[in-house]
């Protein structure tokens, strides 16, 4: 309950005008409310700022105006009460501190950052289940960015006026629900039954007989359905390299919708989180360490998602034992379990964030203390669309901010597409199953991502890096990435070689409509059991026997490609971990660089604008572009769906790595220009606390 006018008059009588400061008036009003106030009063009160004006309040009013409020208005501030509604026990108030908030939201952020990598680890299974091409899965990833774009700028600007912890909590809950709904795509049976081999248990079923040499004539409905494998032809001639165009089913659109919703609710999390920390931290120079600690926790999301992906990839989509090898092109992992786990974990871990107050109490010895308690009432807001446009114009007039923005979107384009399809690249390049790739990179990435992000924040704090230091760090990082990633061209494998039947071999009429790559006992790859001359198969189609074209004694083949003996897999993993570590070193400096190029009141909008542009021109088109590039290297398409069965490894490597390297060269040039402006044109001379504001137009 607010103090009445008589109470205010009593305060006027007790304190002379020269002593009537905010702290004194608030302290006295608190004693009156608790000891001598009217009956029925409680701990909650609010006092309009304009009723208390003393000569010592100029600094406080300046800080108040910097938060976006108008001098002398009726706006009120909430401080310090930890809880939800009337449930704010005294024992819980010790928890209302910034480090605990950083840790709590970092835990929720782990699962919000896990969904994208989980999707990347399950691309192969999802494509086989739903009959999607890599371009289609790229569209799903881009849908997340479309949702992001719809809300990031407005959310960043308006969100800082809301109760930030509660806003972040509700957003995380909605994000978790969208992940759970995506798991419903498992109900789609399009392509799944044929690919998973559920019908192969019956020896007389066409799904088993179609692969055999002796069964060809009885299986084909008409001559027009078959393209015989000509003698001496290679696998690309045998397979129909023309991409089929099957219709997209409802599960694809469900993925698109949920991905867009997830993008909306997570769009403003980093800008609001950064603004909350910057606004409540005691010493601005320590904000980098707090942000680094939280981001270090969040980077555990990708490796956890990768390891979770490894587990679900080892389980059949129908949760039953099929005896099928994971290298079999018909294998579909239980991808949907991963989406359920991530969604539920995100919801549960977000709930504690709801309890944090709008403003965390600061130390009592700081000059900008206001010993206010939380006001549950509405806050009067004076900011309008014209203020937003004015702030936007102000930040876009800063040359360093604009160049930093362009640098960020270039980096986002390179990283988004490469990271989204990195596991698919490794599966194709080294002939590994999704589980093998996930296990190989999951554990090392945990340490490289977390240690890189935390170390980057620690170095930034210890060196008190300002704008100049952050730009130098960014340039060195980009050069190192450019040089090390050249090793990807070396650590690659040659194209898969297939057996080519000769004229001296008994001819089998084999159809390109029945591709099933198999490995023979002679360690040769065959386009199908039919090409190998196999006439029999085991009951679950895991071994084809009586293969006349094999020179081995057993004359049998099994689904999957033979191990080609490529020795570079572990070297590639080590290089990828080194690149991940170096990339994470620059996360905190890049954030600090962005917010140090604008005024403090514009930091949240600057972060939101930078994220908007990076998404619009970086992360949104990148998965689609990379997906098109990957599809262009496909040699054999599945006749029963829109996904690729066989890629040209050398073309895949050249385009996948080469595109990123060419763009990286441009990124190095751009950062060099920024550094030239800082050093030669004297933008951003360092000040105390690492803040560089003399390049900012006031």
Automatic annotation (TrEMBL):
Organism: Elysia chlorotica (Eastern emerald elysia)
Subcellular location as annotated: Cell membrane
A GO term from the CC aspect: basolateral plasma membrane
Chain segments annotated as coiled-coil in the UniProt record: none
Keyword annotations of the record: Cell membrane, Disulfide bond, Ion transport, Membrane, Transmembrane, Transmembrane helix, Transport
Transmembrane segments: 98-119, 139-158, 167-185, 250-268, 289-313, 333-356, 400-421, 441-459, 471-491, 568-592, 604-626, 655-679
Protein name, per record: Solute carrier organic anion transporter family member
Disordered as annotated region, ranges: 30-59
GO annotation, biological process: monoatomic ion transport; sodium-independent organic anion transport
Principal location listed in the UniProt entry: membrane
């Amino acid at each position: 309950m607010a103090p009445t006018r008589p109470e205010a008059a009593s305060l006027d009588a007790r304190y002379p005008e020269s002593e009537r400061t905010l702290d004194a008036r608030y302290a006295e009003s608190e004693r009156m409310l608790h000891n001598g106030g009217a009956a029925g009063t409680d701990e909650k009160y609010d006092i309009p700022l304009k009723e208390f004006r003393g000569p010592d309040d100029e600094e406080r009013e300046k800080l108040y105006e910097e938060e976006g409020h108008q001098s002398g208005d009726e706006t009120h501030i909430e401080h310090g009460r930890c809880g939800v509604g009337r449930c704010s026990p005294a024992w819980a108030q010790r928890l209302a501190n910034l480090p605990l908030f950083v840790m709590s939201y970092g835990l929720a952020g782990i699962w919000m950052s896990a969904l994208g990598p989980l999707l990347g680890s399950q691309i192969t299974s999802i494509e086989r289940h739903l009959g999607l091409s890599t371009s289609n899965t790229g569209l799903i990833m881009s849908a997340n960015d479309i949702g992001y774009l719809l809300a990031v700028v407005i959310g960043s600007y308006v969100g800082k006026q809301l109760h930030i912890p509660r806003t972040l909590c509700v957003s995380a809950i909605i994000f978790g629900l969208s992940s759970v709904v995506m798991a419903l795509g498992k109900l789609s049976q399009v392509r799944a039954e044929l690919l998973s081999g559920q019908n192969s248990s019956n020896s007389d079923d066409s799904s088993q007989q179609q692969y055999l040499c002796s069964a060809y004539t009885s299986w084909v409905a008409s001559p027009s359905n078959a393209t015989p494998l000509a003698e001496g032809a290679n696998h690309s001639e045998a397979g129909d390299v023309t991409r089929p165009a099957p219709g997209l089913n409802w599960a694809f659109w469900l993925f698109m919708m949920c991905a867009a919703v997830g993008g909306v609710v997570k769009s403003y999390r980093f800008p609001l989180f950064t603004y909350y920390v910057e606004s409540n931290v005691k010493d601005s120079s320590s904000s980098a360490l707090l942000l680094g600690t939280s981001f270090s926790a969040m980077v555990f999301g990708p490796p956890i998602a990768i390891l979770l992906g490894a587990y679900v990839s080892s389980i059949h989509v129908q949760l039953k034992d099929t005896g099928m090898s994971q290298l079999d092109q018909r294998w579909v992992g239980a991808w949907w379990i991963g989406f359920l786990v991530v969604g539920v974990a995100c919801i549960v871990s977000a709930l504690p964030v709801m309890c944090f107050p709008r403003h965390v109490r600061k130390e009592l010895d700081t000059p900008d203390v206001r010993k206010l308690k939380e006001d549950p009432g509405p806050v009067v807001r004076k900011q309008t669309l014209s203020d937003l446009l004015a702030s936007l114009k102000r930040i876009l007039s800063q040359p360093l901010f604009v160049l930093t923005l362009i640098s960020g979107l270039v980096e986002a384009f390179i990283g988004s597409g490469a990271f989204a399809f990195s596991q698919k690249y490794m599966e194709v390049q080294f002939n590994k199953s999704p589980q093998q790739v996930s296990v190989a990179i999951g554990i090392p990435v945990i340490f490289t991502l977390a240690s890189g992000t935390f170390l980057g924040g620690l170095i930034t704090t210890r060196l008190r890096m300002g704008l100049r230091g952050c730009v130098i760090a960014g340039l060195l990082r980009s050069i190192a990435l450019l040089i090390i990633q050249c090793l990807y061209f070396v650590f690659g494998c040659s194209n898969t070689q297939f057996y080519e039947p000769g004229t001296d071999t008994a001819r089998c009429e084999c159809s390109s409509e029945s591709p099933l790559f198999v490995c023979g006992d002679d360690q040769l790859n065959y386009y199908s059991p039919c090409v190998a001359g196999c006439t029999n198969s085991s009951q679950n189609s895991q071994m084809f026997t009586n293969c006349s074209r094999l020179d081995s004694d057993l004359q049998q083949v099994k689904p999957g490609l033979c191990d080609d003996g490529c020795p570079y897999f572990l070297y590639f993993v080590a290089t990828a971990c080194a690149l991940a570590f170096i990339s994470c070193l620059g996360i905190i400096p890049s954030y600090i660089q962005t917010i140090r190029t604008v005024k403090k009141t514009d930091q949240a909008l600057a972060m939101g604008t930078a994220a908007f542009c990076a998404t619009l021109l970086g992360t949104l088109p990148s998965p689609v572009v990379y997906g098109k590039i990957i599809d262009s290297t496909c040699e054999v398409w599945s006749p029963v769906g829109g996904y690729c069965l066989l890629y040209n490894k050398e073309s895949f490597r050249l385009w996948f790595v080469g595109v990123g390297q060419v763009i990286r060269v441009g990124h190095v040039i751009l950062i060099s220009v920024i550094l030239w402006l800082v050093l030669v044109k004297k933008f951003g001379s360092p000040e105390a606390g690492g803040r560089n504001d003399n390049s900012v137009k006031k």
